[in-house]
Amino acid sequence: MSQSVDRQANEILAADIRLRTPDPIPQFWEDTAKRYDLKTAETQTFPSVVFNENQSALATIKAVTQNYPLRGKIRIAKELYANEFEIEGIPEQGKVWVDGTLISRLNVNIGDNISVGQTDLTISAVLKYRPDQSIGFSSLAPSLLVNIKDIPSTGLVVEGSRVRNAFLVAGEEDSLDNFYNIIAPTMPESTRIRNREESLERTQNTADRAQRFLSLTAVISLLLSAVAIAMASRQFAYRRMDMVALMKSLGARQSFVISITCIHIFLVGLLGVILGSAMGFAIEKILIQIVGDLFATQLPNPSLKPILLGSGAAIILLSGFTLPSLIQLRNTSPLRVLRNDITPPSLSVFFISGCSLLTLGFLLYYILEDGWMLITVFTGLLVVSGSLYLIGLGLVMLMGKLRGQAGAAWRYGLANISKKGSKSVIQIVAFGLGLTVLLLLTFVRTDLIRGWQKTLDEDAPNYFLINVQRDQRQLINNLLLNANLEALTFVPLVRARMTKINNQDVKTYKFPDEEGRWMANREANLTWATELSSSNHLVKGEWWPKNYSGVPLVSLEEEAAMEMGVDIGDQLNFVIAGLEIETIVSNMREINWDSFQPNFFMVLTPGALDDFPRTYVASTRVEEHQKSVLHDITRNYPTVSIIDLNSILQQVKNIIDKASLAIQVVFLFTLAAGIAVLFAVVESTVDERRFEGALLKTLGLNRRTIMLGMLAEYTALGFVAGLLAACGASILAWLISVYFFEIDYEFSLVIWVYGLLSGIFLVSLSGLLATKKAITVSPLHTLRQGP
């Protein structure tokens, strides 16, 4: 599931890894990719003027090889505003797929020829969407997609031509890692590598959050398994005490006794690993068949890696959480053969906690790979466990005093809880932990999906208008108003290039991050603003006053500033149209890329760019039945480029849908594991229940009364555990949602209702089902066997 969400996000790159370089693609890259059975494709991107008779227009030529794209699908249409559809493959040699804006500018139709360099190509389709198309302003010209075999005949790519070559790679994760590790040391500085982590911000956040949630479910599963193993091993040791005492009384040494027990546990664990691995592998196969069609990308084939990881985790958990019980079993006295009430001394709480914490800490760190999240989850669960123990201890003592005020069944149930003392407290802790992690997972999942759905604003802009001239703004707004659309707010855009940071040339400046070097050396898009945009949030420094007229100030996007190693007060120099401008960094912003508004990494003070040439950009929402106004704009103002965001918005929605489906499926398995743990906790006391039931039946109580008493006991335990679990889950869900998933969390009484109801229902149900046998067995048979 995790890999499938990654693949869906990688469609933004049209590959799993994209290597971009101004130089020809090295043969070494291709050979290395072939060695690891990776799929590859190549692209060449460059600007050029294309012609049709007396019409001409600047275009971005995208030449691709046969395998393009490796991730995602190209979408085309047979007419300018016809419905689009997915297509396999690329244009045939001699054919070209052209962006709709370019078709309008050249005044051509499907089937016409256009001149690209020294050759003529036939327009065979309207290019609606390609997976790696940009929604920024770095490429203002509309694009056309051409077969790379046609490039030599155009004569446009010669030595010294400004061409961006890209090498696309896709395949299995291990093979991709091997490929990258081999070529990374040989890559020149001019090469830029991009993967999912550097893809479109919006899809990256979705995929990262899905990954974190899937990691969280793995952690929850481990915690539930740990609770189950601890309770089961405790019962296992208790049942074998008589046998160990007998063997010791017959002369067996402690090492022999413990060796037999360890072998027994190892064989049981091995059987569990084999059966669990087989079931997991089979379920994974079945899931791929069931939900595979719901994913736009092909799901990865099952591998042995999860089996090895699961087996290792099972062995580590089994070793760490059975050790305290084994040591206690080892200390069983031979006198137990004569006196059944003799039990080995209990181990130190610190020793048991130490074994458990070390085991869990090792596994959690390996899975999460996030130190802060590990500390939060770990500390939170420790606090919850301690609170459960202390509050549970107090409530157990309180129940002993309240039992006289209840009916017969409740008197029996509350007396049982009070009488067992520490055993009841341990059950409350076990039940409470199980319910806490299930509630935590449930509400984090709900908040995560709700947060994703909030980003899918149905009124979000779906078209960008760029390269708008100053005198065209009002004319375009008039067209929109006539079509019953809102007038646009145009944002100025000035092309510039950064030259110095603190008077040091950017070519020699030492950047803390290679992304910072790329950011500083690329062509920059600057704008100015009087007020902070609604899609931006100030994180450092202060925004300038409305009437500011001093030294030019610049506001930077927070992450870009960190990558360039720039802070408030630093000086940045830009060259615009041959003239240099000096700016001082005034503040830093966090940008909400989900808004699909025109956002800039660098924003200057009003007046700083008045003397420089500029164009304008804007975003708008145009519904399907209003698309004719876009045709009017491109026909009347051919210099204006219109970028269609519908396909990109749909791509984001697809990724969110797939991520939601993935976490829902995984959540169901974790929920089933949690319920199984509750049964395991109850099963650990079934022997005592059986003996108590036999005694009570011998004393004349009927089955109904005994059942009601046990039901009262489990209801009380479930109520306490559910109440405390709701409190712990609320706090943990808030911490994880806000600080790790970066989504809003709303405190709600629903979690308390769910906690109480699920605690009472699940604990009572599991208790009654597990102890049903305890009151159906013959009292004589039970009393002969003993407790």
Automatic annotation (TrEMBL):
Q: Where in the cell is it found?
A: Cell membrane
For this record, the Gene Ontology CC terms, alphabetical, are:
plasma membrane
Report how it sits in the membrane.
Multi-pass membrane protein
Q: Which residues cross the membrane?
A: 213-234, 255-283, 303-327, 347-368, 374-398, 425-444, 661-682, 714-741, 747-770
Record keywords: Cell membrane, Membrane, Transmembrane, Transmembrane helix
Per UniProt, residues of the ABC3 transporter permease C-terminal domain are 217-334, 665-779
Its protein name is ABC3 transporter permease C-terminal domain-containing protein
Q: What is the species listed in this Swiss-Prot or TrEMBL entry? A: marine metagenome
